[in-house]
From TrEMBL:
Residue ranges annotated for the Ribonucleotide reductase large subunit N-terminal domain, each copy included: 13-81
Top-level division of the source organism's lineage: Bacteria
Pfam annotation, one family: Ribonuc_red_lgN
Alphabetized GO MF terms: ATP binding; cobalamin binding; ribonucleoside-diphosphate reductase activity, thioredoxin disulfide as acceptor
Catalyzed chemical reaction(s): a 2'-deoxyribonucleoside 5'-diphosphate + [thioredoxin]-disulfide + H2O = a ribonucleoside 5'-diphosphate + [thioredoxin]-dithiol
UniProt entry tagged with the keyword Oxidoreductase: yes
Protein name, entry field: Vitamin B12-dependent ribonucleotide reductase
Similarity comment: Belongs to the ribonucleoside diphosphate reductase class-2 family.
Cofactor(s) needed for function: adenosylcob(III)alamin
Span of domain Ribonucleotide reductase large subunit C-terminal: 87-582
One GO term (biological process): DNA biosynthetic process
Alphabetical list of InterPro entries matching this protein: RdRp_reductase_class-2, RNR_lg_C, RNR_lsu_N, RNR_NrdJ/NrdZ
Length: 954
């Protein structure tokens, strides 16, 4: 029985069908073949009219034999969506606020271009090194520069805003050169919770720097921008080449800071700049100083990656040797590769381009990136252990055969369609990669040119492998686990468990292999393979990949730091273009065990407004309504959402516009924007959006009533959206509430409807309990943000629960702060009175990520002697409140409930797969589906080791 026969006999896994429908199927499509037919039809439309039927059949055949176009192609090709078929781009950024410099757009022009790219579905990478360092002279305004990290925060917030207006989470890669004077701030930028959450970050290091590390010498931090007088006084000086040396640093000290951050926080990654450019086929046309968010494509400004992968498992004959000696159909692989190259070349003409500069760049060079997936499973099927030398030799041959077939196919395309316009034969063939091509290919390129400047790239293939390849191992990774149970949250709010099996494992079982006991020794999972062997696999494949390889080297939590550092040094010596590692670290998060539902929470007696009891004791109890309140998640929006925008509001504190998105005639998000929106109003909108996710209209109405009565600042007039007449409002918060309430009414939501409200029933008290002359318990803390001038006292009122514990129930401030904070305090106070602390915990964790442009500041971390940078005053408020809840034993310092009551969410236990075949959950970040801190980087993608959730790649 050969490989094709076996594959046709496999039933589709339920999870594969579910992911296919959720992410890739359009209209009435329900199967892989329907999607493949749509893609084939769309790409064949680029061909000459008389040839379209022929190529439609060829393109469908190639997909059915193992070619999987990238996710954007499968999801959007042949549809009415105005979305790009290209996964990722690089956006150049210059050293000017608006005007172009040296061919690079100004910072805010680049921001607008990046936003448009993300709006169309593309991820974006940047190198921010051209932005002048903090403290550099800004001659036009006689001021000092704030540095690239400050502008990265602006890009981060923009990505978050674009994400809130579309279905695909924005992915960004930020790169900074190792010699930039702000490199240390860049290295540590993501060590603060909530900082640059929409970025991956990498340091671009040179051979000169690595040699300085080797020889323990000093290394200069330089920039073209002139430093300020204080930096000059400290020793900054100009070199003969015109660059300014801001200071010198011991190279090993800087390297150690990079390594320590990566060891503890999994970032930054490391890119080897000189290796990338020496290998570049277009070394004569461009300098590569950034990558796309997953790292498999070093790209020039406006460059893109047009991706697809070959499922290598489809070309293994007689797998496992159960019915004959295993072998590879090399001829069949070359045939499919040739058609795949033509398809990817057609994508460049079929796609919608977000920017004309991207279209021009692609037309000039016609880069594509054909990669592989299923390598780990293919090696298992060939009875080769992933961490063995024979496996590395086989992997190298796979990569070599794909590359050579791709280059031959591109030469043939050049004979038919012409070479890419930037082709220069002698210079092209002089690149590091092209020199290694066989002589017959080099001769053909010299004679006929080549259609595509680059052809191979190994990208992460998380969901396309799951949906189109029966959960074959991703990219060049080994399988992560042979089987596991994935708990998936469904559209109706319920949950469903899926048994997920690795493709090679289920194929082995289907063919009669014994899976009841020990599997054969060539069945090797990622966690059984040493970090060094992971890196050696990249080294084995790299010489046959002209772009780069996306691979995350997972190392154990107890992996020695010195060995970890050596991985990176060896990666440089092995000639790798970059390396990314992931080590579970308690400095990020830890796996949380799910506690059983607690005893029934308290229900208050009615408390009169004149009642005086400083403890405010609650006496009666209610039964919790388990699962009545789902943990709020942002809705998935494969087709986007409608959005209503208000008229411009001119307030004494700033001008702004209110936006309210709706889905199926129900509001789900609100935000404010404008040239100078009032400070603090954005965080009010963010918190209100989380309330909208509950789909609990009485609760949302109560929140709007609270905001509508909020004073603060100066009263002003707005035009009533219903009558058009001017009306007075007491604050910007009240204006926001009036506009949101109007939008709700136009959507047919009756605020006075007395529908059942799980949120309102879970309140400790419907109104804030009042104290008499005896007072109440409380907690106060000073807040000072010297950057924004905020200087106030944060005060928390508390009451005693029937079990003797103490609970906060109100928060407010006194002093100098944005008046919109009055609305924020009112929202949080109402949230505090939800009986299950998981609700306020979720709100505070979200608020900790709230960033204000140029509002970040350094403050002491509550409960420690250390200081840290906080992205906004609101974020620090949230951190202080979490700390107070921690002091009371209600939350931990990460903002997670110590005990789960089950009112907000009850987590069901997940049946574990057999221990011998299922990897244990690993430490990581919070999973949006199971909410355990078990999300790690696997194959360049977010992967939950507890429930199997696969998230963003990059």
């Amino acid at each position: 029985m050969n490989r094709v026969d076996v594959f046709s006999g496999l039933e589709t896994q339920s999870i594969s069908a579910e992911v296919l429908r959720e992410k890739y199927a359009k209209g009435g499509e329900t199967s892989i073949v329907e999607i493949q037919q749509r893609v084939a039809r769309a790409l064949a439309a680029v061909e000459k009219p008389k040839q379209r039927a022929r190529y439609r059949a060829l393109f469908l055949d190639a997909q059915q034999r193992g070619f999987i176009p990238a996710g954007r192609i499968n999801s959007a090709a042949g549809t009415d969506l105005a979305a790009t078929l290209i996964n990722c781009f690089v956006q150049p950024v210059g050293d000017s606020v608006s005007a172009p410099v040296d061919g690079r757009p100004g910072i805010y022009d680049a921001l607008q271009k990046a936003a448009e790219t993300m709006r169309r579905g593309g991820g974006v990478g940047y190198n921010f090194s051209h932005i002048r360092p903090a403290g550099a002279l800004v001659k036009g305004t006689a001021s000092k520069a704030s540095g690239p990290v400050s502008y990265m925060r602006v890009f981060d917030r923009s990505c978050e805003t674009v994400e809130s207006a579309g279905s695909r989470r924005g992915a960004q890669m930020g790169v900074l050169d190792v010699g930039h004077p702000d490199i240390e701030a860049f290295i540590e930028a993501k060590q603060t919770a909530g900082e640059l959450t929409n970025f991956n970050v990498s340091v671009s290091v040179t051979d000169a720097f690595m040699r300085a590390v080797e020889h323990d010498t000093a290394f200069p931090l330089t920039h073209a921008a002139e430093p300020g007088d204080d930096l000059k006084a400290a020793g900054a000086h100009q070199r003969e080449d015109g660059l300014w040396v801001y200071r010198e640093i011991r190279a090993r000290d800087l390297w150690d800071r990079i390594m320590q951050s990566t060891y503890d926080y999994a970032e930054p990654g490391v890119l080897f700049h000189d290796r990338i450019n020496a290998e570049n086929n277009l070394h004569y046309l461009e300098t590569l100083d950034a990558t796309n968010p997953c790292g498999e494509q070093p790209l020039p400004g406006y460059g893109c990656c047009c991706l697809g992968s070959i499922d290598l498992t489809r070309f293994v004959r007689h797998p496992f040797g159960l019915q004959g000696e295993p072998s590879v159909d090399w001829a069949g692989l070359a045939e499919v590769v040739a058609v795949a190259v033509r398809m990817l070349d057609n994508v460049l003409d079929a796609t919608v381009w977000p920017l004309p500069e991207q279209a021009a760049e692609a037309a000039h060079k016609r880069r594509v990136g054909l990669g592989v997936t299923g390598l780990g499973d293919a090696l298992v099927m060939l009875r080769l252990a992933y961490d063995s030398e024979p496996a590395r030799e086989m992997a190298a041959r796979f990569a070599r055969e794909v590359a050579h077939a791709a280059y031959r196919a591109s030469v043939e395309l050049a004979r038919e369609r012409g070479p890419f316009p930037g082709f220069q034969a002698e210079a092209y063939l002089d690149s590091g990669f092209a020199r290694r091509l066989p002589e017959d290919i080099r001769a053909a390129i010299a004679a006929h040119g080549i259609r595509n400047s680059h052809l191979t790239s190994i990208a992460p293939t998380g969901t396309i492998s799951l949906a189109f390849a029966d959960n074959a191992s991703n990219g060049i990774e080994p399988p992560f686990s042979w089987t596991y149970t994935r708990t998936k949250r469904m559209a109706d709010g319920g949950k469903q468990d899926y048994v997920v099996e690795d493709h090679a494992y289920r194929l082995y079982r289907l063919m009669g292999g014994d899976v009841s006991g020990e599997l054969p020794p060539y069945f090797r999972t990622a966690l059984e393979i040493s970090a060094r062997d992971h890196a050696l696999m990249v080294a084995a494949v790299k010489d046959h990949v002209d772009a780069a390889i996306s691979k995350t080297v997972n190392v154990a939590a107890d992996y020695p730091y010195e060995d970890f550092k050596d991985l990176y040094m060896q990666a440089w010596k092995l000639g790798l273009k970059g390396i990314t590692t992931y080590r579970p670290s308690g400095k990020r998060a830890a796996v949380l065990s799910v506690a059983p539902a607690a005893e029934a929470p308290a229900q208050p007696e009615a408390i009169s407004l004149s009642e005086a009891d400083r403890r405010l004791v609650l006496k009666r109890v209610i039964e919790p309504v388990l699962n009545s309140l789902r943990w709020p998640n942002r809705p998935r929006l494969p087709r986007g959402a409608s959005c209503w925008a208000s008229d411009a509001i001119e307030s004494p504190e700033g001008s702004f516009v209110v936006f309210v998105s709706d889905l199926q005639n129900r509001p789900f998000e609100v935000w404010v924007n404008g040239a100078r929106p009032p400070r603090g109003l954005g965080s009010v909108a963010k918190m209100l959006s989380l309330d909208m996710y509950t789909d609990d209209f009485p609760w949302l109405s109560r929140k709007l009533e609270v905001l509508a009565g909020t004073n603060g600042g100066t009263a002003f007039q707005v035009l009533d959206p219903e009558t058009g007449e001017p009306v007075w409002v007491p604050s910007t918060v009240a204006a926001l509430a009036r506009l949101v309430a109007f939008r709700h009414r136009t959507l047919g939501i009756d605020r006075s409807a007395k529908s059942k409200s799980a949120m309102m029933e879970a309140l400790i008290a419907p109104r804030e309990p009042k104290t008499g002359p005896d007072g109440t318990m409380g907690w106060i803390c000073d807040v000072l943000n010297p950057v924004t001038g905020d200087d106030f006292v944060l005060m928390v009122k508390e009451l005693r629960m029937p079990d003797g514990s103490t609970r906060p129930y109100s928060v407010w401030g006194a002093g100098k702060f944005p008046r919109a904070f009055e609305g924020l305090f009112k929202l949080l106070s109402l949230d505090m009175r939800i009986v299950d602390p998981a609700w306020i915990a979720m709100k505070l964790r979200k608020l900790m990520k709230y960033a204000e442009p140029q509002g970040d500041f350094l403050a002491r971390v509550p409960g420690t002697d250390k200081s840290s940078s906080f992205p906004s005053t609101e974020a620090y408020i949230a951190r202080l409140l979490i700390h107070r809840y921690t002091m009371l034993g209600i939350l931990d310092e990460q903002g997670e409930p110590v005990e789960q009551m089950g009112v907000v969410q009850a987590e069901a236990a997940v049946d574990a797969a057999p221990a011998a075949r299922q990897a244990p959950p690993a430490h990581g970040t919070e999973c949006p589906e199971c909410h355990l801190h078990s999300v790690i980087k696997k194959d360049g993608c977010q992967f939950c080791t507890h429930c199997g959730y696969t998230g963003a790649c990059g």
